[in-house]
Amino acid sequence: MEALIAPSILSADFARLGDDVNAVLDAGADVVHFDVMDNHFVPNLTIGPLICEALRDHGITAPIDVHLMVDPVDRIIPDFAKAGASYITFHPEASRHVHRTISLIREHGCKPGLVFNPATPLTWLEHVIWELDMVLIMSVNPGFGGQEFIESSLAKLRQAREMIDDSGHEIRLEIDGGVKVSNIGEIAAAGADTFVAGSAIFGSDNYAVTIAELKSEITAAVS
Predict the structure, then answer these.
(1) Sign of the torsion angle spanned by Cα atoms 195, 196, 198, 202
(2) Would you name the residues annotated as active-site residues?
(3) How would you write the pLDDT of the chain (223 residues) with one tens digit per residue?
(4) 221, 174, 209: which is closest to 28 by C-alpha?
(5) Which of 41, 93, 135, 218 is exposed most, by the fewest CB atoms within 10 A?
(6) What pTM value is reported for the model?
(7) Are 61 and 70 in contact, with CB atoms under 8 Å apart?
(8) Total domains present in the chain
(9) Quick one: CA dihedral 5, 11, 16, 17, positive or negative?
């Protein structure tokens, strides 16, 4: 499966968000990643569906990957679907009925995914993996950008990769948290194929150079 770079707009310049997102896509990024936080499930408050809709109205056509860190989660899913989300991922802890939430995402025309915090076991996948288009492994505790990568996430990635391969389904394996040029190779070798990077890209002096370096490290690790 083709490796995808998904810059998190949490690290973008919100004063010129549309132009900044265009810039990273023009520089070689593949997916726009949304970190949606509610100051309840996680200790931060970020963005809602209006920002997603605004980027679509601005002319953004790339896939938009919405990571919902909200509880309860079902209420906001139709709003993001209407606003133009492509993927919608959520934490199983934020849903009373995980299968129903997955079905709700798909019913609204989006691709569903489950998100696993560092201390959340992957056992949920034993029951719903066949219903998913994405599995997202958090390599930091969610809530803030700029955190350091948790090394034990590599073992979790390998476990998730094995479960996905055994399922026989095409399911993206995404990593989010502390991803940068110096570690993306070992992350790719552990099985990830979709890479969220916020500060590593938006905080760099040259988006195109950084994204090219990220992709080069991925290629070297998996070739």
Answers:
(1) positive
(2) 35, 176
(3) 899 999 999 999 999 999 999 999 999 999 999 999 999 999 899 999 999 999 999 999 999 999 999 999 999 999 999 999 999 999 999 999 999 999 999 999 999 999 999 999 999 999 999 999 999 999 998 766 667 899 999 999 999 999 999 999 999 999 999 999 999 999 999 999 999 999 999 999 999 999 999 999 999 999 8
(4) 209
(5) 93
(6) 0.96
(7) no
(8) 1
(9) positive
Q: What is the CATH number of the domain that holds 56?
A: 3.20.20.70
Who contacts 187 (Cβ-Cβ below 8 Å, separation ≥6)?
Answer: 139, 149, 154, 157, 175, 179, 195
H-helix or E-strand containing 32? strand 32-37
In this structure, what token pair is assigned to residue 4?
């995808």
d(CA 179, CA 189): 13
Cβ-proximal residues to 145 (8 Å cutoff; 6+ apart), any chain:
8, 10, 11, 35, 198, 199
State how far the Cα of 56 lies from the Cα of 27, in Å rounded to an integer.
Answer: 19
Residues whose CB is less than 8 angstroms from the CB of residue 186 and which lie 6 or more positions away in sequence, other chains included: 154, 221
* Domain, as residue range, for 159: 4-222
